[in-house]
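Researcher: Let's do a round of design. I'm pasting the structure tokens now; please hold your answer until I've finished.
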């Protein structure tokens, strides 16, 4: 799939089939994440692959009703974390760049996923709860949760309405 076509076709998927994802596909997905740009090439990522149903339940409780179905229904949740000692000032951006590579790769491979925020500087309880649930050391911060699986073909996906190019572009 060409890059632009992949970008335009990718959609958030929240409902998944009960079908396992091979280790080979997971490795391709993580490999794409590690190719993301990072500040000063710090590569601060750590990727946690959550399959355990008890940990999924903890993550769903922390993220609330809006994310419960996708977190519990996913075959796996990729938690993108960053090491704040490797990227002292740009770690949120570094994690988000890795997330975008991962989301596009998931789509290209015929899987579905949704971006779920794992970090919000206005909600330290969220970060602390996720760190506890995932048993993370102090320097490792969860930034994004990506529940994924084979997409349920019965999930209704609405077409996005995007703002026009002229509306969002300025020429100086």
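Researcher: That's everything. Go ahead.
Model: Designed sequence:
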């Amino acid at each position: 799939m060409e890059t632009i076509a992949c970008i335009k076709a990718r959609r958030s998927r929240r409902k998944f089939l009960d079908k396992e994802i091979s280790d080979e596909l997971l490795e391709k997905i993580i490999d794409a994440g590690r190719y993301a740009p990072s500040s000063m090439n710090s590569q601060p990522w750590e990727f946690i692959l959550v399959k355990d149903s008890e940990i999924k339940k903890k993550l769903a409780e922390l993220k609330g009703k809006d994310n419960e179905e996708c977190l519990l229904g996913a075959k796996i949740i990729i938690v993108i974390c960053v090491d704040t000692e490797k990227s002292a000032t740009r770690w949120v951006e570094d994690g988000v760049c890795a997330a975008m590579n991962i989301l596009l790769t998931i789509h290209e491979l015929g899987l579905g996923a949704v971006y779920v925020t794992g970090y919000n500087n206005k909600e330290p309880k969220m970060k602390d709860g996720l760190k506890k649930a995932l048993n993370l050391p102090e320097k490792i911060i969860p930034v994004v949760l990506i529940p994924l699986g084979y997409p349920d073909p019965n999930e209704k996906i609405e077409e996005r309405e995007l703002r026009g190019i002229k509306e969002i572009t300025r020429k100086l």
